[in-house]
Design a protein that fits this description.
Structural class: mainly alpha
Shape: elongated
Order of helices and strands: HHHHH
Largest sheet: none
Number of domains: 1
Distance between the termini: 37 Å
Radius of gyration: 15 Å
Number of strands: 0
Helix content: 55-70%
Number of helices: 5
């Protein structure tokens, strides 16, 4: 596959993700079906796990004994906050193409 083809495919994937995000408040189960959640945090956490969080971020959270719920609710200390605000949130915002976190 050529570089141009990969770039076009990545652009289409990003556009498809943005279109899916615009259609509903919270995303998806394992079949990429949209659904609503009774608890807004549950949907946000699932979306982050599926589309935004990297393996490096997952490992860091595990090492720090933090959950995504802890991060979203601000149950972190100043040392954690430096990584979260300096690395995780900007990375997630870049993937979304807009400022949502932080």
């Amino acid at each position: 596959m050529s570089a141009k083809t990969r770039i076009e495919e990545a652009r289409r994937d990003r556009e498809a993700l943005q279109a899916r995000m615009a259609q509903c408040q919270f995303v998806c189960d394992d079949e990429d079906e949209f659904r609503w959640f009774e608890n807004a945090e549950e949907g946000t956490v699932l979306f982050i796990k599926k589309y935004l969080r990297t393996e490096e971020q997952r490992a860091w959270l595990y090492e720090q004994d933090l959950s995504l719920e802890d991060v979203l609710d601000g149950r972190t200390n100043d040392v954690h906050g430096v990584y979260i605000r300096g690395v995780m949130f900007p990375d997630w915002n870049a993937k979304l193409g807009r400022h949502v976190f932080g």
